[in-house]
Specification:
This protein is an alpha/beta fold. It has two domains: 3-222, Rossmann fold (3-Layer(aba) Sandwich), CATH 3.40.50; 242-285. The protein is built from eight helices and ten strands. It has helices at 30-42, 105-118, 152-157, 170-180, 202-213, 223-239, 244-265, 267-285; strands spanning 3-5, 16-22, 45-50, 64-67, 73-76, 81-85, 93-99, 123-132, 142-146, 185-193. The strands form two sheets. The chain has an eight-stranded mixed sheet, with helices on both faces. The protein has a two-stranded antiparallel ribbon with strand order 4-5. It starts with a strand and ends with a helix.
């Protein structure tokens, strides 16, 4: 048995399916934390889960043991849980919080597609976060792309088509399945500074939430996570104040970041200047 149903789902309308996975696509836990924040705030109802037995190497995705306040021991297996929300807006929502599987990715994705198709889903949003060469001292970078251009959400948001090539994760597999079923999908990625070895980056989670809120019609209270973000930034500033090597490295990242932002604002002049500089450099070399 691949599904475990907790309760019968209500009839949903104009469904948006939002997913995030722990593991490879969850740097600083910023993707999964963003979905957990929305689920907790909206009190979305858990209605099903995927039995993990067929999809994990437990020597790599190990079960987790913890102690409760009353002394009981609890063993937790890799989670893959579905939640639903009857929204007051135009779209009802299904949330999926998973753990990227080790085995049988196609079979695993078909289980997701069964939920997606049976509920007449009209849009998929995959949320992820990755380690990136960005400085923590600049505005947090969140990027998005879309696989379709014939959809009311995508025309409104005007996200570019994805252009990444290389090793990928379960988010891309699900997007590919949806594309073949003519279901539009959006991928949202937060960029976490790779030099920060931290369990959670609340500033990145905050900005991922703001990007999600551009698409779904849900009221999100940012007050608590904004406080967490401010405390995080203050503590980070203090922790790195005497780390000269890291500060010099961050300065280099700042230069690159500012240059990339300049190209976004004025792409043609920047390209012309770069070409002219390269030409003059070559002339001096000769």
């Amino acid at each position: 048995m691949s599904y475990k149903y907790i309760e019968k789902i209500e009839k949903l309308n104009n469904v948006i399916f939002i997913s995030a996975w722990s593991g490879w696509s969850d740097a600083a836990e910023s993707a999964t934390k963003s979905l957990k924040e929305i689920i907790n705030q909206t009190k979305a109802k858990k209605f099903a889960s995927i039995d993990p037995e067929n999809y994990y190497l437990y020597s790599e995705n190990r079960p987790y043991v913890s102690n409760s306040n009353n002394g009981d021991r609890k063993l937790s297996w890799p989670k893959n849980d579905f939640y639903y929300l009857k929204s007051q807006g135009e779209n009802d929502i299904i949330f999926f919080l998973g753990t990227e599987p080790n085995l049988k990715w196609n079979e695993y994705t078909k289980l997701l597609m069964e939920i997606i198709i049976n509920n007449s889903t009209e849009l998929i949003i995959n949320v992820g976060s990755l380690l990136s060469s960005v400085p923590h001292t600049r505005p947090t970078r969140v990027t998005a792309s879309m696989m379709s251009d014939d959809n009311k959400y995508l025309k409104k948001l005007n996200y570019p088509k994805p252009n990444y090539e290389g090793p990928t994760g379960i988010t891309s597999v699900l997007s590919d399945y949806c594309f073949k079923e003519n279901i539009p999908s959006i991928s949202i990625w937060g960029h976490a500074p790779h030099y920060l070895q931290i369990p959670h980056n609340p500033t990145l989670t905050l900005n991922i939430l703001k990007e999600i809120s551009k698409i779904i019609d849900i009221e999100i209270d940012y007050s608590d996570i904004q406080k967490d973000s401010q405390n995080f930034n203050d503590n980070l500033k203090n922790a790195l104040s005497d780390q000269n090597d890291i500060q010099k490295y961050v300065e280099k990242l700042e230069e690159r970041y500012d240059s990339e932002e300049e190209v976004k604002l004025n792409p043609e002049p920047k390209i012309i200047i770069d070409e002219l500089e390269n030409f003059l450099r070559d002339q001096r070399g000769q």
